[in-house]
Amino acid sequence: MFKNAIVRIPATTISEGITSIDEGQPIYSKALVQHENYVSALTKAGVNVTVLEPVDEFPDSCFVEDVALCTSKCAIITRPGAPTRQKEAELEDMTQALHSFYEHVEKIEAPGTVEAGDIMMVGDHFYIGLSARTNAEGAAQLIAILEKYGLSGEVVPLKEVLHLKTGLAYLENNNLLVAGEFQTSPTFEKFNKLNVEIDEAYGANCIWVNDSVLVPKGYPKIQSKIEALGYKVLVVDTSEYRKIDGGLSCLSLRF
Q: What is the pTM of this model?
């Protein structure tokens, strides 16, 4: 069960963030409202939310998931693969927040790169996507840190998606949302897989929080499959974040 979450208010420069798609620029006022509703959903799911102030120097800084990994034993400050985001991991308020919750805070060092959007936690085991943002050196450092605290990890090469959790969402109780390349991956055969159809691929990025599942607005087939498993669903509109390759998991650290 999660007790806490950390989020960051979107920067006024959010429209200048990294994106690989062409769906228009996010509307800042709308992004703010959606972020407030996201925080409200986390609160409804039973976590205390620490809200960090916006940092206009870093347009992508609301996507706090990428700059740290929060485990049951330690926090790990990452080193993002996107050069424009590497200094985000060094922001003082995030570092202070992590130290306020964790006795042990570790760090990924150069030349390793890790973005935690590439990391899926399943109990004490962590699947680590090798991507354009997370390299083999970063993954090796991460696994060494995890093993230091009695946790474990394994790498998963990515072929199509930006981050591992672009196409996967672990919903606890062995239930796994799977999209695209992961639907036939032998790595995930042991799970009860809920296949995501291509027209709802973005909706694969859901998050489990204390037996509730936050689901992006506009993906009724995914919502129906999750509800059929007995989860309480909280629907959150993330249309403005989709425009810059962001989803529900990207917007918070949950621990």
A: 0.96
